[in-house]
Structure formats: structure tokens, C-alpha cells
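Following up on my earlier thread - several people asked me to post the actual chain instead of describing it. Fair enough. Here it is, all 55 residues.
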Amino acid sequence: MKVKHCTQCQNATYQTDGICVACRIGLPQIHAELADLTKKLKRAKIRTLQTAGTR
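Reply from S.P.:
Thanks for posting it. Predicted structure:
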């Protein structure tokens, strides 16, 4: 089988349609959403600590 590159993330794949398994199940999107949520929670925690006067 010839190695192709994913049309969305450019990773090597052997899939005939050109989309890798990770992109097919949505892992890059899930990772991005998790990173955004983590940033929002960290900001909220920092704001809470600053308003309480504790650092």
C-alpha cells in the first residue's frame, strides 16, 4: 500500500479516502476544545484568587 497524507492534518495514512483515523473520530477538534477549556478554567481560578486577596 502506498502512504498518503491526510487532507486535514497532513499525517501519513493508509486510508483510501485520504482522511486519517484521528481526524475521522475528531481527536484534533477534541484536543483544541480541551485546551480552550483548560485556559478558561485557569483564568477563572486566577481571577478568583486575585479578588479574594490570596495568591
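The longest strand covers residues 4-5. That should answer part of your original question.
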